[in-house]
Amino acid sequence: MIRPLLAVLLIILASPVEAQEPILRTEMEATEAIPGQPVSLRLTILVPTFMPESPVWPSFEAPNLLVRIGSSGPTSQTIDGATWSGVTRNYLLTPMVPGSIDLPAQQIAVTWADPDTNAPLETSLATDPITVTGTVPEGAENLDPFVAADELTLEQVFDGTPAGMQPGDSLIRTITATIRGTSPIFLPPLLPSATVDGLRAYPDEPVIVESEDRGVITGTRTEKITYVAEGGGSGSLPAVSLDWYNLDTGKVDIAEVPAISVLVEGSPAAPAAPPRDWRVLTAAVIGVGLLCALLIFVIRRMRQPLATWMAERRAAHLASETYAWNALSRVLRIRDHAALRPALDRWAARSPGADPRRDLRVAAALTDLGAARYGGGSDEADGWKSLEKALTEFRRLARRRPMHSALPPLNPST
């Protein structure tokens, strides 16, 4: 008998302890909704004492899901004859597209007062996993994009004279979509990008305004384009229409505004320059940058070998017969007596074959030139011409003769 009594006593003692823990209650009226329409999720936290701090609520954020806080406030309930205090929060979960959206379990941090000491205690409560499904009603499967509302209207306003524009005039087209029963963020872009010859379009950023009155969401989406006349032309700004699902009638309705004819007087404007393809320009800039980097790398690697090669080539040129002959020819042209002998000696040392200074014609020309300069003989100009002719002829013949080795033959004839 003692063991059963002890078991009953333990159960009795344990029950109040368990009953004193915070409680999380979840209420969800539905798990399916038309895209754009919310489902209600109510979370209620109850404690046996009070909560000195507000709970840390989950956000329930997920792709393609719009989350709003419908309401939040204190509450109280009677549990086992005792009044428990608490707080409740109502989430409005709105699927934005058809399909299922899975929400995993979320943690809620609760701070509450200990029943005996009023010391703050912290408890973590977990919600259950939730799935919210967006379903398209029958007959609205072809709507793209899908918009469901209680009411949807389009309004069009023009600021300007569409039928009598002159180059330089402007025309402002404004279209406003007014929706009730759904957030205006579900509305797609309204104004098309088409324009008219002679007009240039300057669109403004869309303006979205949302409000709520007694739980009913209303709002507007306003789009505006300014058209500036640049030259003569005519055409029409296209009509705007939007198919939407009427929640009140359960049918697909159409909201639309008509097209408008536009006439710009005057001669046609010059054709606009084609738009720049920034992708091509970016690729070209990157290519030029890579080419410059490669060129810099090659120059740095080849700078020293190239400088050495160029120095060797220059030294070889300065030591060549051609360089010496060009220097001698320059002396002959300017008839410089002081530079003649050094230039002749330098060329003679590099000239192939015999020494040109021992050639009879060259020696005779040198003798005549000296006699004309110092002895008062024949004209000095004739001496320069004779020397230039003799040297030129000697070089021509020397370059035509085959080169012979300066070494004696290995087997000389006897």
List the helices and strands and how they pair.
Elements lengths: L1 H18 L3 E6 L3 E2 L5 E9 L17 E15 L2 E14 L3 E5 L3 E7 L6 E7 L3 E5 L13 E2 L1 E9 L10 E11 L18 E5 L3 E7 L2 E14 L3 E5 L2 E7 L4 E7 L2 E5 L13 H41 L2 H14 L2 H14 L9 H16 L4 H21 L14
Helix pairs in contact: 3-4, 5-6
Explain this structure.
This protein is an alpha+beta fold. The protein has helices at 2-19, 278-318, 321-334, 337-350, 360-375, 380-400, and strands spanning 23-28, 32-33, 39-47, 65-79, 82-95, 99-103, 107-113, 120-126, 130-134, 148-149, 151-159, 170-180, 199-203, 207-213, 216-229, 233-237, 240-246, 251-257, 260-264. Strands 11, 12, 13, 14 and 15 form a five-stranded antiparallel sheet that branches. A hairpin with a 2-residue loop joins strand 14 (207-213) and strand 15 (216-229). The protein is elongated and about 150 Å long. It starts with a helix and ends in a 14-residue tail after the last helix. The model is unreliable at 4-19 (pLDDT under 50).
How would you sum up this structure in a few lines?
The chain is α+β, with helices and mostly antiparallel strands. It is built from six helices and 19 strands. Strands 11, 12, 13, 14 and 15 form a five-stranded antiparallel sheet that branches. A four-stranded antiparallel sheet has the order 1-3-5-4, with no helix packed on it. It has a three-stranded mixed sheet with strand order 2-9-6, with no helix packed on it.
